[in-house]
Amino acid sequence: MNSILDELRTAAFAVWNRRWLALGVAWGVCLLGWLALAMVPNGYESKARIFVQLDDALAEQIGIGVGDRKRAIDRVRQTLTTSVNLEKVVKSTRIGEDVATPRQMDGAIAALAKNIKVVSEEDNLFAISAVSNDSALSDAENAKLAQDIVQKMIDMFREENLAGGRGEMNESIAFMNQQLGDRQKALELAEQKRLAFESAHPELARGGAGVIQRLEASRTELRGIDADLAAAQSALAAINGQLAGTPQTLAVAGPGGGARGSLAQVQSDLAGMRARGMTDNHPDVISAKSQIAALRTAALTEGPGVGTPNPAYTSLQSIKIERQAGVQALVARRGAIQSDVARISAENISNPELAAQAQSISRDYDVLKTQYDKLLQDREEMRLRGQVETERSAIKFQVVDPPSTPRAPSAPNRPLLLAAILVLGLGAGAGVAFALAQLRSSFSTAAKLEKATGLPVLGTISHVMTDAARELRVRSNKHFYAVSAALCGLFFLLLVAEFIQVRMVA
Question: How far is residue 279's CA from residue 261's CA, in Å, rounded to a whole number?
Answer without folding.
Answer: 25
